[in-house]
Amino acid sequence: MLLNTSSNxxxxxxxxxxKKNFWGVFSFWFIAFCFVLAIIxxxxxxxxxxxxxxxxxxxxxxxxxxxxxxxxxxSSLNSKKESWGKNxxxxxxxSDTEIPINNYSFTKNHLLVTTYHEGELKGLxxxxxxxxxxxxxxxxxxxxxxxxxxxxxxxxxxxYGRDLLSRMVVGIRVSLSIGFVAVFISxxxxxxxxxxxxxxxxRIDAAIMWLINVTWSIPTLLLVIAIxxxxxxxxxxxxxxxxxxxxVEVARVVRGQVMSVKKMQYVTAARALGFGNARIIIKxxxxxxxxxxxxxxxxxxxxxxxIESGLSFLGIGAQPPMPSWGSxxxxxxxxxxLGKPYLAIIPGVAIMSLVMAFMLIGNALRDALDxxx
Length: 373
What we know:
This protein has 16 helices and five strands. The chain is of the alpha+beta class. The chain folds into two domains: about 1-35 and about 165-370, MetI-like fold (Orthogonal Bundle), CATH 1.10.3720; about 65-155, no CATH class. A hairpin with a 3-residue loop joins strand 2 and strand 3 (about 110-115). Helix 7 (about 165-200) runs parallel beside helix 10 and helix 7 (about 165-200) packs across helix 14. The relative contact order is 0.13. Belongs to the binding-protein-dependent transport system permease family.
């Protein structure tokens, strides 16, 4: 009972210290908000098509707050109705045609529209027969209400005319997913090798340290690029590649912690009771070295986001049309000198904010879990 009370009190003290750190708490809620936004992305974004990939080339590179009337031409294809859950997590399969227009008018049996244009350019004039294009049972007022809507692009449009806000929100998924998977892989490999190396020592320790030092000597980005090229371009390949390069620091920290913890009396008592090495490592040693691992995981989460953004910028990360903040910067960095820098600055600020949040929460956890505090 005394041990449990002491353990609980230490956890409560750490939580109290964390709550007193303003930037740590702020970062925690910011990251929590990003997680929730990533989960419900297709519910809240204006463009809920798969990957927010609705293109309108006539309204490309528009400034934030841009508004336009959008005419939707329903598809004649009988598209299969997808489940609600699939639409929420993967977006809707959008087969209708959207046309930005400047003005429109109805005649007896036709809808006359002028496609979007600006400056001296003239838009195309098109005519649609109401009974052939729209459901016959709808009146002109119902057609106008349902199929002609004013669309507002809060962050403007990218160079393909896609809604930048929708792409940014859906892009959160890529950044958070890469962090989760990379940190998970690095923890599994790093904790296993570090614990084995620190616990057994001798030749096993020498062999694992040789592997750690060789991996440590290779520049991280070059190693990630090499693994990515070996596995092929793609979403999951990048996750695996980043995870396989981030285990080294975890292994070094775990090795050092295990070497000091294995000399403690409770480990000696566990050996005396006849417990196996695997049980001692998993049940008794690793739970007592989790504090530094939590801090490292937060830093690795931030590093994984930066690495994925760099890979996407180089064209070997998440592949189009999947929205990635790094690929958005790649597509629009030339616009910085063409008078529309926000197209590259917005995703850049998003990357900076998320990375800074993880670094700040890592620092706050380090201070909260410091036993000397």
